[in-house]
Structure formats: structure tokens, C-alpha cells
């Protein structure tokens, strides 16, 4: 067990700590902290997030949207702050990846095909066994969102989501039909192969 743990640690120390960029509203310019680095922040402009660094080792202050000397900025690093062990932490509204904390250092890891992260297990599990649900309504640009767009429920081959503003409404394809992620609609099961790990309910 110790040997396996040691190999795991060796395999991840070479990876860089990263954060998932924020989802930008294309109608406004905004600034967002990098939760893995007090010195960095994201600028959202025309719907694109760009990672930037404060000059002179200053920290980014999200409340004032500016860089200042560290003693003036109450910076919280991120999900691994204060951690002293090896643990997996969910990324809000993302099921296909998670944050691996090695001490206070954060690493992004991606679940294998057919699996989703489940916070109850602290690991990636078969998609049909995961309780994780992504809300696509929170990541859709409100300026271009269409209420008729259908999104998949990642753990299921029959369920899909429509957005009521920011709220997801889960629906199920009728009869034997399954939800195709290719055409974003319910189709005959003979014409579509469900993703591995998904349930048929």
C-alpha cells in the first residue's frame, strides 16, 4: 500500500497546479481571482478568460478588482488551503474532473472515460453510480442562451436538461428512446450508442 501511495505521489509532483478558468459573460468585462495563486487573476473580455499576474509580487484583491501589497489583501488560496494530507476535492459544477490536494498544493485530475467524480466516495466512479450533476444553465452565456437547447445528464443515457433561466429542469426521453449527445435530442436506441458507464434510466 505504501509503495502504491509513493508511486502516486511521484506521478503527480511533475504536474502543474491549475484552476478551471471562469465562465465569462460576453456582454461585460470582469475580473476573477485564481484560487490557486494569490498573485494571479483572470480578466474576462468579450467572453474570453485570460490569466494575468500582478506586478511586483502583489496579490489580487477580488473585492476591489486590483493588485495591492500582500498585507492589504485577505487572500485565500483555494480548496487545498490548510490541508496536510492527500485528498480529492470536487470542483463546483464539474463532474468529469476534480482537484487532488497534496498538502496545500492543488492539481487538476480528469476522470477516465465512463466515470464521474463523486464527493461521497472521494474518487471517480462509474457514471451511473455517481451523484454528481453538472448544471449547464450556470455555464451558458445569458446573451446567447436558447431555452430550446437540450443538455445531457452525464450519468444517464435517457435523461436530459433544459434551462429555466439559471435553473436546470431534468426530463426523460419517452419510451425506449435515448438521449443522443451527438444531435442533442431523443433518438431511437438503434441509432445511437450510449457512452460507457451511463445508466439506461
What does this entry show, briefly?
The chain is mainly beta. Helix content is 5%, strand content 35%.
Strand order of the largest sheet: 1-2-3
Secondary structure tally: strands: 15
Helix content: under 10%
SS-based class: mainly beta
How many domains would you count in the coordinates?
3
- Classify the beta-strand content into a percent band: 35-45%
Number of helices: 1
What is the CATH class designation of the largest domain? Mainly Beta
CATH architecture label name of the largest domain: Beta Complex
Order of helices and strands: HEEEEEEEEEEEEEEE
Outline the biggest β-sheet. 3 strands, antiparallel
Which blocks of ≥5 consecutive residues have pLDDT under 50? 1-17
Radius of gyration: 20 Å
Fill in the CATH topology of the largest domain. Antimicrobial Protein, Tachycitin, Chain A
Mean pLDDT: 82
User: In one word, what is the shape?
Assistant: flat
Distance, first to last CA = 37 Å
